[in-house]
Amino acid sequence: MQPRHVEEIHLVFKARQPAGLEAVQGSGSGQANSQQQQDLQKLRNMLQSGVYFVKLIGTIVDKDATHDHEGDGEVYTNGDASQRLPNRQRIDWVFEFKDTPEAGQQATITRLISRTKFADGDRIAFLNFFGYDYVQRYYVEGERFYNQDTTLFLHRMRELPAVQSGQNPLHVSELPAPDKCRLLDASESWLLEASIDIADGKTQELRDRATRQLMSMRETLSPSVKLEKPDRLALDTRIPVRVRQI
Question: Which of 86, 110, 140, 168 has the fewest CB neighbours in a 10 Å radius?
Answer without folding.
Answer: 86
